[in-house]
Amino acid sequence: MKNGVVIVGAGHAGVQAAASLREEGYEGPVVLVGDEKDWPYHKPPLSKTFIKDGEAKPQPLRGDTFFSGHNIDFRPGIRVERIDLSQRRLDIAGGDALPFDRLILATGSRPRPLPLPGADLAGVVSLRSLDDARAIRDLSASASDVVILGGGFIGLEIAATLAAGGRKVTVMEAADRVLGRAIAPVIAGHVHDRLVGGGVRILTGTTVSRLEGDNGRVAAAVTSTGERLPAQLVIIGVGVVPNVELAEAAGIVTGNGIRIDQHMRSSVPEVLAIGDVANYRHWATGGDVRLESVQNATDQAKLAARTILGHADAYAAVPWFWSDIGDMKLQMVGLTGGSDQCVVLGDAAENKFSVYHYANGRLIAIESVNRPGDHMLGRKMLGAGFSPTPDEVAGGPDAMKAALAAFQQSEPAA
Ligand code: FAD
């Protein structure tokens, strides 16, 4: 492969794909192109520690010499504008072209825009990039009132962080509870109550009808019920949309993301897609998913590298995710869709409990608050294809560990 592999997007997925190609022994050219000017960085701290501490530095995904040391041609600050499939070439901003033999699209996602009168006022931001986080940090330094539109993970993480820093924070959520449908109501309720206890005001079942400005800067958010909330900073956190436009324009099949098979290949086999932008049929549930997590970006990147090297293994990673909201470390493993029975372990009053989800009598997911041991054991159990009985779960971690060990002993060696 003379032109080698070109990877578009230098986030969690793209950087891991470049690294994995080398780890797997790929010796051809690897070019990593990203449109951000910053050195590739971890995204999760942006809504947590980074905006809390004025001195916090971004956490690099790899060290200074990683790319040169692994013979990876990293080109930051460059936007790919078009894929020419017939010529196997990318058009990049400024008029240059970049040939490829294999292409990995790791273009991620971007904040979903909220069409709203006043959304273009200064002081109205979303959080995706390091630049966005810098803007939030700067704006929050002089803001006393902050309104957050959307009660998802990122919105609530920011709410907890800014409230702990003394801001008066209001979260507006259109649904009747925070954290959407994917998480157990008992956890959503716990997070809600604890945030309220920490001084965050949460308005569920409420939308914003407009933002009002003063000299071009946001000054207030007006709710659907007519309440006027003062705000010097408004953060829009209503989810993301996948960056599919490059693929779509090239005729690659999309649909809530770039459609890929179990080997990360798109409808054009020499073009692969990974991370937030990839939509695939989940190996366990049979449903189509597009997961937005570091785990998914990392594991898909590793598999894409293996596919390019000719391996035939299919994607079967157990999904997991975490979120830090104030003094709550939330950890999820598995997918909760179809959950028809739950077993709760631990005590919400102590801010430490886990919810074990079953579907048709099988354990499918575990959601934990401040019980990292449950999460790690859950990853082992789901990874091994083991489902403890609800009684074994109720017996606590030791009972589950014993049952897992017995299961593994009884399994014929692979
Ligand atoms: P990204 O990291 O978004 O990278 C895509 C890159 O491609 C971007 O740099 C983009 O600018 C670039 N790009 C797009 N189009 C082009 C183009 N045409 N040319 C060149 N470059 C292009 N996940 C967790 O598991 N736990 C958490 O606690 C957590 N917290 C998060 C907090 C925040 C604030 C955010 C924003 C995300 C968080 N996530 C968390 C989600 C996680 O960060 C994402 O799932 C992950 O970053 C996805 O990686 P990716 O490489 O697919 O996309």
UniProtKB/TrEMBL annotation:
User: Quick check: keyword Flavoprotein in the entry?
Assistant: yes
Q: Which GO terms describe its molecular function?
A: oxidoreductase activity, acting on NAD(P)H
The Reductase C-terminal domain extends over: 320-401
Pfam families referenced in this protein's UniProt entry, alphabetically: Pyr_redox_2, Reductase_C
This entry carries the following GO cellular component terms, namely: cytoplasm
Task: Provide the FAD/NAD(P)-binding domain boundaries.
Answer: 5-301
Does the UniProt entry include the keyword DNA damage?
A: no
Keywords annotated in UniProt: FAD, Flavoprotein, Oxidoreductase
Say which domain of life the source belongs to.
Bacteria
Checking InterPro entries in the record gives:
FAD-oxidoreductase/Apoptosis, FAD/NAD-bd_sf, FAD/NAD-binding_dom, FAD/NAD-linked_Rdtase_dimer_sf, Reductase_C
Q: Which residues form a coiled coil?
A: none
Cofactor(s) for this UniProt protein? FAD
Q: What is this protein called?
A: Pyridine nucleotide-disulfide oxidoreductase
- Which lineage is the organism of this entry classified under, starting from the top rank? Bacteria, Pseudomonadati, Pseudomonadota, Alphaproteobacteria, Hyphomicrobiales
